[in-house]
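sanity check this record:
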Amino acid sequence: MEPTTLSPKILVVDDNEQNRALAQAALEDEGYTVSVAQDGNEGVLAFTRENPDCVLLDVRMPVLDGPSACARIRALPGGADVPIVFLTAQREVDAFDRALRAGGDDFLTKPVQPAELVLRVDAALKLRRMKSELREHYELVRRQRDDLMRLQLQKERLSQFVVHDLKNPVSTLDLCAQILLRDATLSESARRSVLRMRGEARSLLRMIYNLLDISQSDEGRLRPRRVEVQLSDLADDVLAELELRAQAASITLAHDVPRLRVQADEGVLRRVLENLIENAIRHAPEGTEVRLSAARVDGGVELRVSDRGPGVAPEARDRIFDPFVQLDHGERVAPRSGRGLGLTFCKVAVEAHGGRIWIEDAQPGAVFCLSLPDVP
């Protein structure tokens, strides 16, 4: 069964009417002929009737699920070489492996973007038309793609473990530290140790939440819950939270944030400022100041965190926001490589608010700047 050249036929099998309509509209806009079926049994019958060039197949359906329908299609005349692309909301390694074992050629996770859907169908049809002498190379590329997809799903599972299984015990440590601090008989040295323990626990919690938000951003699920935030009050809270860490590093914290209001996710914005100020404390020389400032600019508010540390070279100012970046020593910014995800989270969070983040030279030192737009 060779695909037609004028108008390839695509069969969409999905029990969700909205998903079927979305896929049909996206593909018909690109000139494909589309037929639909609402469960696995209808899909198998439609395959024998329509003789499609490619099949889009939902994994989870009543009556006959996607992998079972795929196996039946593969056993039909002409079904062995037709591209079958699975669509699923299940971001699980087991679902991915089951789809591959059933004979799937590709794997798309919902919600599917129309442009990505069309590109995957185009690629599936082009791969089908490859000459037989290239088949071996195609299989190698396919195995590499499948391995990468499996690694991605395993990474997401690890992220979920880190967030959900570590968040509770770390929160418990913080709570226990707070209870200890209420003990009036606690010696001053013990109180300092408990305060440091609480500071480290809260720092670890920020890292855990950073990982969660970055993972959500990768999946398009990071959406700020905007409320009215009083920046001066927020600045007071953030500096008070990090005061002990600054004292341990012989750093002075200060802010000149006026009583400005901004529409933002208060918890997310708080962690952005905590990450930036903690980063500045780590790199500022002893006896210097880390300062947070804010001002209204056209169309929004600009916040700036400045330190007197080694600074960031212009050629490295974009890469420093990449995950786990390691900059070479020739860029005079190796100490700014940080703990891996703090600055990445800041970029993700600010952009989720419709803003931007950048670095300026303080001569000496660095100024981490972020702008948040006014929201009507």
Notes: Residues 328-338 have pLDDT under 50 and may be disordered.
